[in-house]
Design brief:
single chain; alpha/beta; TIM Barrel; binds flavin mononucleotide
């Protein structure tokens, strides 16, 4: 039986629904030594900010039960280098390139999105709204629907590419935030970013991470992610990209059944650099075994 794993996302043709989650794949160079990146549905690169960032002091990653904590702090080479050294290299691949954008002010987001939009080196923008908003005392842009709307309206004005808004799960009501993003001009939603967590070394009695708290990712967060994707798929008209703890083809199926159009895979890449190609092969096998001809057949069936 022939199965069709392709996905049409925002006018972009993806061979399959699997793409890396930002920050867990760099700009793809390291992974290209292990497999042909054309195997993937799309590429999502590391957060890009206006200026280069070294990130937070170390230790900034820690293993925890069923996942990891990180407080990397958006380390990246900065917009100029991303445009001159990183994105041109990806042009040799025939798949959509999604650039994750971060900022500390509305102006920074707008200026980065504007230049990436005009560079012709990206097919879509993914806006990471989990960043601390300097003007609002460090509360994240994605934590307040009014602040988020204001940001998205301004970004929309300079963004000629499809705009994916990546939501933070660290909110009281994800539906309110998702509706605000839709209203303010998002073309798609991706979720979830990491949950805030902490680990204490019981020998020293001190937090393990230099920044004390960090983002929890990996299998531990999957049920939270499934719940949030499901809640938003129920009320939004926009396509949703599901993220959080995906390690197997069965996890992908679960996100699609919750209503996701596509998925991103993060922490699993650190455990096994071949995680994504393996999951894509397994997904095809699973669909054949279960007689699923295409993903539309099961998308949102749990709703
Ligand atoms: C080391 C690390 C770095 C990350 N960097 C970014 C980033 O730059 N931008 C972003 O939007 N999300 C970032 N994330 C969040 C992931 O893209 C993803 O949303 C999260 O890890 C949940 O997926 P997972 O459980 O499959 O890892 C990062 C996660 C990790 C573990």
């Amino acid at each position: 039986m022939q199965v069709d794993m392709s996905v049409n996302l925002l006018g972009l043709k993806l061979k399959n629904p699997v793409m890396p989650a930002s920050g867990c794949f760099g700009f793809g160079k390291e992974y290209s030594k292990y497999y042909d990146l054309n195997k993937l549905g799309a590429i999502v690169v590391k957060a890009t900010t206006q200026k280069a960032r070294l990130g937070n002091p170390t230790p900034r990653v820690a293993e925890v039960t069923c996942g990891m904590l990180n407080s990397i702090g958006l380390a990246n080479p900065g917009l100029d280098k991303v445009l001159s050294d990183e994105l041109p290299w990806l042009k040799s691949y025939s798949l959509p390139v999604i650039v994750n954008v971060a900022g500390e002010t509305v102006e920074e987001y707008c200026s980065v999105v504007d230049r990436i939009s005009r560079s012709k080196l990206a097919h879509a923008i993914e806006l990471n709204v989990s960043c601390p908003n300097v003007a609002q005392g460090g509360l994240s842009f994605g934590a307040d629907s009014k602040v988020l709307s204001e940001l998205l309206k301004r970004v929309r004005g300079v963004c000629s590419l499809p705009l994916i808004v990546k939501l933070s799960p660290n909110v009281t009501d994800i539906v309110e935030i998702g509706l605000a993003a839709q209203e303010a001009g998002a073309d798609a939603i991706s979720l979830i970013n990491t949950l805030i967590g902490m680990k204490i070394d019981i020998n020293t009695g001190r937090p393990v991470l230099a920044r004390k708290v960090g983002g929890l990712s990996g299998p531990a967060i999957k049920p939270v992610a499934i719940r949030m994707v499901y809640q938003l798929a129920d009320v939004l008209k926009l396509p949703i990209i599901g993220i959080g703890g995906i390690y197997t083809a069965e996890d992908v199926i679960e996100f699609i059944m919750a209503g996701a159009s596509a998925v991103q895979i993060g922490t699993a890449n650190f455990t096994n650099p071949m995680a994504m190609p393996d999951i894509i092969d397994d997904l095809e096998r699973y669909m054949k075994e279960k007689g699923i001809k295409d993903l539309d057949q099961i998308r949102g069936c749990a709703l």
